[in-house]
Amino acid sequence: MAQPERSAPSVFLHHGFRPPLPSPLLCLWKTARMNELNHLLENNRAWSERIRREDPEFFSKLSTQQTPEYLWIGCSDSRVPANQIIDMAPGEVFVHRNIANVVVHTDLNCLSVIQFAVDVLKVKHVLVVGHYGCGGVFASLTQKRMGLVDNWIRHVTDVADKHEACLHDAGDLPIQHARLCELNVLEQVVNVCRTTIVRDAWERGQELYVHGWVYSLRDGRAHDLGMSIDRHELVQERYDAALAKIQADRAER
């Protein structure tokens, strides 16, 4: 028995309109757009085959567990890939990234990553890594409107407001930009140290260091800002020392 023809939804028929069927040209266009990603799949296959040749057991070992010693909190910038910068293989670094490497106590995503890394994975080092030339930091410094992300960048603007005198004394805009990238890292390190997650870990005697680094796109080098902290009592001391060093620096990065 023939099936009755399925009618268009009443909302269309009420206005005398039937939605057009996809044209062959539209189908071809969609297929072509999907094929644009084929090179990524080919890259993935080539990468996995190369890794297997180098270490036949790599993926079988990786699939059973991860035991990273490091949590990397960095910027989402595509030029700042965590594993490549410190030459670590998959499974060796736990990574969280957002615009301008911000750590705030209302961000459940970031806090959940820190909690899992510290309490479950038992990482020994939390690395807060900014980078010179950060677009989010520059937008904050120049008060450039970006849209919805302005609400997020506001956290960096708070850092700029706090250190207004330091930035003013730094010199021209490129140097101010570099200094704010560094100052932002310092403040985010303090925010990490102030989380109950990190404080509780220190109180129970867990080995855990929080560090502040900044990465240079110009030479691919990471620089330690002197914010390596393994107990709450050191936070203010290390912060003051790192801040004094930044205030005295006039170099462009």
Give a brief outline of the structure.
The protein is an alpha/beta fold and 253 residues long. The chain is built from 12 helices and 5 strands.
Helix-strand layout with pairing:
Layout: H1 10-13, H2 24-35, H3 38-54, H4 58-62, E1 70-75, H5 82-85, E2 93-98, H6 108-120, E3 125-131, H7 135-142, H8 150-162, H9 164-170, H10 173-194, H11 196-203, E4 209-215, E5 222-224, H12 235-248
Parallel strand pairs: 1-2, 1-3, 3-4
Antiparallel strand pairs: 4-5
Structure characterization notes:
The chain is of the alpha/beta class and 253 residues long. The chain folds into two domains: 55 residues; 182 residues, Carbonic anhydrase (Beta-carbonic Anhydrase, Chain A). The protein has twelve helices and five strands. Strands 2-1-3-4-5 form a five-stranded mixed sheet. Strand 1, helix 5 and strand 2 form a beta-alpha-beta unit. The relative contact order is 0.11. Reversible hydration of carbon dioxide. Its cofactor is Zn(2+). GO terms for molecular function: carbonate dehydratase activity; zinc ion binding.
Primary descriptors:
single chain, Beta-carbonic Anhydrase, Chain A, 5 strands, 11% strand, metal-binding, Carbonic_anhydrase_CS, Carbonic_anhydrase
Global Rg: 25 Å
Mean pLDDT: 91
Morphology: globular
How many separate domains make up the residues?
Answer: 2
Question: Looking at the chains present, what oligomeric state does this protein adopt?
Answer: single chain
Measured by DSSP, the beta-strand proportion falls in 5-15%
The CATH H-level superfamily of the largest domain is Carbonic anhydrase
Give the strand tally: 5
- How many angstroms separate the termini? 77 Å
Q: What is the succession of H and E elements?
A: HHHHEHEHEHHHHHEEH
| Portion of residues within helices | 40-55%
Per CATH, which architecture of the largest domain? Answer: 3-Layer(aba) Sandwich
Content-based structural category: alpha/beta
Query: Looking at CATH, which topology of the largest domain would you report?
Result: Beta-carbonic Anhydrase, Chain A
Number of helices: 12
Describe the sheet with the most strands.
5 strands, mixed
Keywords: Lyase, Metal-binding, Zinc
Organism: Xanthomonas oryzae pv. oryzae (strain KACC10331 / KXO85)
Cofactor: Zn(2+)
Family: Belongs to the beta-class carbonic anhydrase family.
